[in-house]
Design a protein that fits this description.
This protein has 269 residues and is an alpha/beta fold. It has one domain: Purple Acid Phosphatase, chain A, domain 2 (4-Layer Sandwich).
């Protein structure tokens, strides 16, 4: 049973990410890390700032968010998780990729567009494209009945009304379309910089808070337990078992927070 540590937006705070993962590894046998967007992929940034080599003993994967260099990511060039820079050893998960019962889709709308510069810290490719949707639909069609989880940077249009409420958004509308095709039992996302566990159409949604918000708390943490407690809204550990037909037996999975101060665990088996 694979243990995946899902982490909210980190916005290039790689020190915080590594300290969180080491703390998690001190408690459980985590096999991989997935950052759910806004990783901070800017490979042309000065080398002293850039995350050149991971110190972690497990692989790090990431979805693209709206605060990543999409020109360098070159969407659609590779259909499986892969390195997208020679100086970068984390793996980018392409939009529409599906494996082990999980469908992944990066992308989201930047609402701070007026403070950014196109081609430097904003890219129109942040939006989910027609090609992204075509790939995702093809993956869904080839994994009928086996997808139990969606991992995205943004939430869906309908779920957004539960999370915050507001006007429709093109990217959320596209995720809503995929959600209706898949009808997963679990949906993990970031982007909104808040933690919330909520329900929409029979699916459990988990919004993860951005880890970089707790940078100084992480630096000043007394020990691993203290660090996990302070950042408990930013991560989720998931153990998933996929079945050919999950309509009756899905739910033999659990979600947990590692922090001892929080009793957040769902187990529907």
């Amino acid at each position: 049973m694979a243990l995946t540590l899902y982490v909210g937006d980190i916005h290039s705070d790689f020190l915080a990410l590594e300290r969180l993962v080491f703390a998690a590894l001190s408690r459980l046998d985590v096999e991989r890390v997935v950052v759910v967007g806004d990783f901070g992929f800017f490979p042309d940034t000065h080398q002293d700032y850039w995350y050149q080599k991971s110190k972690l003993p497990i692989p790090v994967l990431f979805l693209d968010g709206n605060h990543d260099d999409h020109a360098a990511l070159d969407h659609g060039s590779i259909a499986v998780p892969a390195r997208k820079s020679l100086c970068f050893d984390a793996l980018h998960i392409p939009r529409g990729y599906c494996a082990d019962g999980v469908l992944y889709m990066g992308g989201a709308t930047s609402f701070d567009r007026e403070f950014t510069t196109q081609g430097i810290d904003w890219f129109p490719e942040e939006n989910i494209s027609d090609d992204d949707m075509t790939r995702a639909r093809a993956q869904i069609a080839s994994h009928v009945g086996s997808i139990h989880t969606m991992v995205c940077h943004e939430t869906t249009d309908g779920a957004f009304q539960v999370l915050r409420g507001g006007e429709s958004d093109r990217n959320r509308a596209r995720l809503e379309e995929l959600f209706q095709l898949v009808r997963p039992r679990l949906f993990i996302h970031g982007h909104h910089h808040r933690f919330r566990k909520y329900e929409y159409q029979g699916c459990t949604f988990v919004a993860l808070r951005n880890l970089d918000h707790f940078h100084f708390e992480i630096i000043e943490a007394r020990d691993h337990d203290d660090l996990l407690r302070k950042t408990e809204s930013c991560y989720l550990l998931s153990r998933q078992i996929s079945f050919p037909d999950h309509s009756s037996t899905w739910g033999r999975s659990d979600l947990m927070c590692l922090a001892p101060s929080i009793q957040y665990r769902t187990d529907s088996s």
